[in-house]
Amino acid sequence: MLRAYGNNTVIEMTDRYYETIATGYDQLHKAEQQRKVEFVLSLIELKKYKTVLDVGSGTGLSRLMGNTVGLDSSFEMLAKGNGVRVCAYAEKLPFKSNSFDLVTSFTAIQNFTNVIKALKEIKRVCKKTCVMSILKKSEKLPDLKKKIQSQFVGEFYDQGVDIVFISLARRS
Ligand SMILES: C[S@@+](CC[C@H](N)C(=O)[O-])C[C@H]1O[C@@H](n2cnc3c(N)ncnc32)[C@H](O)[C@@H]1O
Question: How far is the centre of ligand 1, averaged over its atoms, from the C-alpha of 132 (Å)?
Fold first, then answer.
């Protein structure tokens, strides 16, 4: 697994919460996260995409395809998963521009320290479509929706537990 933390300033942003719950995460959240994945798969045509990045991937429950690159700031969460995993921050993605056909982020955006910075990074590395889900019960939901709309044009869908955003275009 690659650790791509930028510098000490970025390390200070780490939320240690997920490191403490990594062991029991799948048992608690597997069924719920899988329902979100299935919902997204009913809305997009996955075969159109060859390269996929999942930002805030945690243990990998939200991976849409076998070759999805999982990126998370918690080494402990990533360590519970498998496949290609990168330990880094959404706010500073260690990838070239337009590296991924599809970028996903399931139930993670409300945890990002600097949401606009993270959205700009997602926009930069995403070549085609971006899918983001937000917990409906998050008090940050209205603000997060506005921030997403400031960077992307797209549609919001009600999944039940999360609101799912699917981008149609990027804003410049
Ligand atoms: C609720 S979990 C969701 C995990 C996974 N997407 C799923 O569906 O099971 C949120 C994840 O976001 C990660 N996270 C929080 N802030 C982050 C950041 N700034 N950059 C990358 N990942 C972050 C946490 O470590 C955690 O694994």
Answer: 12
3 state DSSP class of 102: strand
Q: Count of domains in the chain? A: 1
How far apart CA 54 and CA 9 sit, in angstroms, is 23
Predicted confidence (pLDDT) per residue in 89-138, tens digit: 999 999 999 999 999 999 999 999 999 999 999 999 999 999 999 999 99
Q: Measured between alpha carbons, how far is residue 84 from residues 11, 34, 53, 54, 101 in Å?
A: 21, 20, 10, 11, 16
State if residue 25 touches ligand 1 by the CB under 6 angstroms criterion. Answer: no
The pTM for the full model equals 0.93
Host domain of residue 62: 2-170
Per-residue pLDDT tens digits for 50-96: 999 999 999 999 999 999 999 999 999 999 999 999 999 999 999 99
Q: Which CATH number is 124's domain given?
A: 3.40.50.150
Q: Which two tokens stand for residue 43?
A: 């809305």
Sign of CA dihedral 26, 27, 28, 30: positive
**Ligand 1, from 5, 21, 23, 57: best to mutate by most atoms within 8 Å of Cβ?**
57
Residue 113 CA: which ligand 1 atom is closest? 19
Cα 60 to middle of ligand 1, angstroms: 10
